[in-house]
Amino acid sequence: MATKKLLFVARSLPYKTEASRLALTHAISSQSVEIYLKDGDLVEATIAFVGDGVMNCLKNQQAMKHYGITSIEGHMKNSLLLDMKVMICKEDLAKFGIKEDALLMDADDIGGEVKAQIVPYSEIQKEMESVDHLLFC
Amino acid sequence: MKLGVIMSDYRTGSDVIDRLTAEKLGIIFVGNGVYHAASKEAGKASSILDKTNNLYVLTEDLESRGLTSANLDSRVKAITYSDVVDLIFNDYEKTIWL
Question: Would you tell me which of A26, A53, A67, A90 could form a disulfide with A10, CB atoms 3.0–4.6 Å apart?
């Protein structure tokens, strides 16, 4: 029995490229691969937003209204609904002057119990060191 | 030359803008370019906003990213897609996309 830990680090701005969306959707889909694993084996994904990537975490994104596509915010909610650990870099939020109330921090409205965490970069660094696979997007 | 610049990125293109000269220069922020108009880094607004007084941002791209007119630098005017078309056809002889 083993757990493979993955960390997706989203550092790209949303929408112009698919990078941050792919980080989230791959992290989410990693939770469905267990049917292909041996009994007892697990995959545990975490997602961290750093640098420009913190912009993905702003709430009230209206991508469906304007682009006809699901918002990054919606994918973040789904990841929280799946109890995924979501980390947002504190220093990068401060650099942009973004306050917590501007961010999507929970998925309460769809039954999620886990909250996103605003953490110092040092904690994200520790997470990078602790995982088996590291993916920058 | 009356030049309209459609700025669609946040981290690239500033070097080009710095070198451009035009009798009339307009900058329209679209896509990820909207962060020039609506965010500050270390408390400082984007230096591109000092380049001209004719600054516009596409509302659709702003709102899609969870931003609103309230986030905008006061020098930038929020406009719609049809306003962009009007600007291109009526106010500028040439347009470039960065």
Answer: A53
